[in-house]
């Protein structure tokens, strides 16, 4: 049996995995981070980067608030600038029905600690002059904003190197094997040994759990995004709508990112994705409807990113059920906002401390048949 | 909804038109799409204005172009011009944007005949107004019948250099100098291929002769080191290369005053569509770089997807027509419109003809190719991504920080994120990265993205009301 | 650049705050070029002057505002009374 080289092997170098590895390393653990591509090269690298209370599930608001605080103080935990902009968020209503939806959504989130209030159309327009005249009301949250996903990837990469995490990019892990004192992580042409595992595989978490004979079904969402070319400032807030299917923000370089959860086509098995033209048109129409001046620019790029969703649409963070020294983190809706905080919680738990806020017990989602058959460790 | 055709052709240049005509002649239903207002591609680009008294003479290619457009007009091919293809899906579905807004087309088979874009390797001052591509200068001369400048410096290698320089002379301009960026020895090695096509050789010699006769200074084995503005003029600094390819040191340069600089470093196959559809590609430096893998029937690795012309490797207009014709006949044969025997006979004849023709075309292409080392001459503070103002030093810093390939460089520097969608900077950035990462395959290629061209938002969204928008079900509360 | 234009071939357009005379069939890019206007816009980060480069709709450098809409000068033919604004973009 080979030597255990690492305290922890984190498999998956997206936002969750990379942040977890970073916190563990900063607390003194010898960590290795493996990914079939690079740091934040998959979904985390093509994310819209929205930091939002209004699009976060009500139950996750306390986590999102903590996450937002971390992002807007990124020098503290990241040390490198991920290009975060704190900006207020406006969620728009164009019909009376939508106003009712906004009120309902705002109340649910206020109950969990978010500061969200309803504004009249004219008040909303005083904050965001570029809004369409068809807006009849908006919900407002001062605690919104965005990070730049690609810049965050670079910042994380630098922070990991500084924290002496060994990054194994272009390393596709094929399986893990429990050994005497830990795990062998086996990729093509390389084996790495660690005392404990963290599975942070995004939409591939289900396949990773299968390595340990644990079954948690994970659904793959294929989120479409698009970006315009540079345009003079046309908006200064983060914009959404009552139905939730618009997310709009303008970066300091003048480009506007358009998203909100419209679906493309894709397969996590092949990794390939495809934009659905009708859905791109629908998403962009919503954007132009909200900020009419967008009609004067050009759309330069569109793409898809995978998002993982569990059966109850809540995160899985904690121990791999029935397995010693193996942990998992993922399936966090609006995970960009709360991501670093969720990773911090898991790191606290792994290090033997009480996490600041409760984790999300993965065993609730295990397919019972395979759980009972589980005789590993 | 437009009806499904048996063959859609993307690109109405020589390859695309030849394919469309060949298939259509055999009663295959064909649609041809091009973003220009008329057929001809770049090499047979239609002049858009009248031939006035003071205007430049007709180029020989103009006659060929007119014939091509006439043949297309009198055929049964359905032509839709001024349509920019922004998305393609297997099956095949083609989405365009144009004067009629967004449109969707369907075809059983697809032929990509998208031609090339020009490669220009960056140098200090290359982004100044007045500096343009060599192919750009050709287009100005041919289709707009204007000089790129009254007294331009013309730089490049291979036949295009001489065609442009002599075209300027014929138009009443006087090049300040002709700079041959290639090693003159490379001309010699291509002579055997040129001899097999005496008319090409004569044409080339004729161009060179017209330049020499006007006593235009010709500097060979040289590089444009930098360009800057002085008053209303450009100053072009030219330096010759040593035998080992390195640039001669300071103090050995020449400075030329000019009103424009036309410079090109070869052509690149335009492979955005074949990449988007997931076809296999291979890197072939002599053919222009990455090109789709095709068999001897012009098929790519994707069923129903064909490719022909310079987008499959630079071999010139004549080869493009032969390849296009072969692709069109293959489709006709597949659709049962011609017999096995007839197809085999015609295909064989086309291939034999193409073998001769493309040998010359390929040599010409090879002459235009820059040496690998040109990349090393780019100073750190020179912009390599024009759209985003990203410098060579920033790209190298990303590589030094651990960027693993082209897409991570894009993510970390913004190279390739601008409206040109990586067309201008892609080859340069890949070449720089190749130095660090050990080869073009390791570097990878841009992740394919739609829209294939920047989409004007107004045309894209069209006229709509809020209630028209089919908003899908939102995520749970 | 003298072009010996015949009346019916001449097309007059507005460029920024003055008029420019071009020839029927000219692209906006060519009309500007022959009128001596070579700076069409400025680059986004460095604010460097930019003009025609590829002349085939690929490089996006010749982006100007034509009749209120962002378009590539090399792809649009001039029409009488057209309004062109340069150096307003990125």
Short description:
With 477 residues, chain B is an alpha/beta fold. Chain B is 35% helix and 21% strand.
| Main pleated-sheet profile of chain A | 9 strands, mixed
Quaternary assembly = heterotrimer
Q: Provide a count of the helices of chain B.
A: 14
Q: How far do the termini of chain A sit from each other?
A: 17 Å
Average pLDDT taken over every residue of chain B: 91
Q: Roughly how much helix do the residues of chain A carry, as a percent range?
A: 25-40%
CATH class of the largest domain in chain A: Alpha Beta
DSSP strand tally of chain B: 22
Biggest interchain interface, per-side counts: A-B, 58 and 42 residues
Tell me the fraction of residues in β-strands of chain A, as a range.
Answer: 25-35%
Number of domains of chain A: 2
The secondary-structure class of chain A comes to alpha+beta
CATH topology group of the largest domain in chain A: FAD/NAD(P)-binding domain
CATH class of the largest domain in chain B: Alpha Beta
- The succession of helices and strands of chain A, N to C, reads EHEEHHEHEHEHEEEEHEEEEEEHEEEHH
Q: Sketch the major β-sheet of chain B.
A: 7 strands, mixed
CATH architecture level-2 label of the largest domain in chain A: 3-Layer(bba) Sandwich
What is the CATH superfamily of the largest domain in chain A? FAD/NAD(P)-binding domain
Cα Rg of chain A: 21 Å
